[in-house]
Amino acid sequence: MKALLMLSYASLQSIDDILPFYTHLFHGKIPSPDTLKAAKARFQSIGVADPLGSVTARQAMAIERRLNLIGGGERIKVYQATKHTSPFVHETVQQMVADGVTKLYAFPTSPLYSRTGTAAYYQSVRKALEASGANIPVVEINHWHRYPGIAEAISLRLRTALQWLSMENRSEMTVLFTAHSQPGVPEVNNEFIQAFTELAEEVALRADCKKWMLAYRSAGPAPQKWLGPDVLAMIEKVAESGGKAVVVCDLLSLTENVEAIFDCRIHCRMKAEACGLEFVSTEFLNDSADYMDALVELIHERMKQSE
């Protein structure tokens, strides 16, 4: 049996999962009561269950259904594993071995290749397979950021956001393409920066967007170096240069999650309002039909290429 393993950051099923999630995030150190209180407040403030977990689960079901419709008779099962919550990679690999999986396709759900994301996921898969003693070949599905259907789905949301701006300010707007910052200097993140830039160029081209810049969000504290410039500083720059509006379009978190909601919508909106700018952000792709269709086309194509 062939299997697709969807690799994502986390999947909280209950508000009670915040403690083990943050403990794992902090490498086994139990977070302080204040940290837990603030984290719980952030999750509760969005008014729904953790969307990263619920939407990713729906994506898995949609992708499995579509793959098996076009798969030519051989069943393909879709599994999930996350970095910081159960099911962890080693747990899912154990389940796949027990289920009799004979070929594995590893698929990170973020489009931009990074050392701390994509590469770390793949390393976890290899270690788990080695520990299990199973000889299951693995095909890594990566560098999918410029697949045409992906760029088209994002550009559709960008065109919608641009159209939403008032006619008065639309000609003086700037699009800020964002991604979660990466630790380290640019030289050690060349692959990530290149993918980020290439996807931004393709999305901007399809949306006929001439004025755009790259920016990063969620950088950690000093003294650790992180990629910049920061998106909030870039919003200030847009205002200082005489801009009238700003559009924030995240290219790393295509699936809605609490951190991206706060970074791209709440904090950026508050900064834009403080700077006197009109603001709008693009919608997340989540489990929309066009995104699911594009992912299945991509995955099916990579599966055929590996045969």
UniProtKB/TrEMBL annotation:
Highest taxon of source: Bacteria
A Gene Ontology molecular function term of the record: ferrochelatase activity
SUPFAM superfamilies on file: Chelatase (SSF53800)
Keywords: Lyase
InterPro entries in alphabetical order: Ferrochelatase
Gene3D superfamilies: 3.40.50.1400
Enzyme Commission designation: 4.99.1.1
Protein family (similarity comment): Belongs to the ferrochelatase family.
Name of the featured protein: Putative ferrochelatase
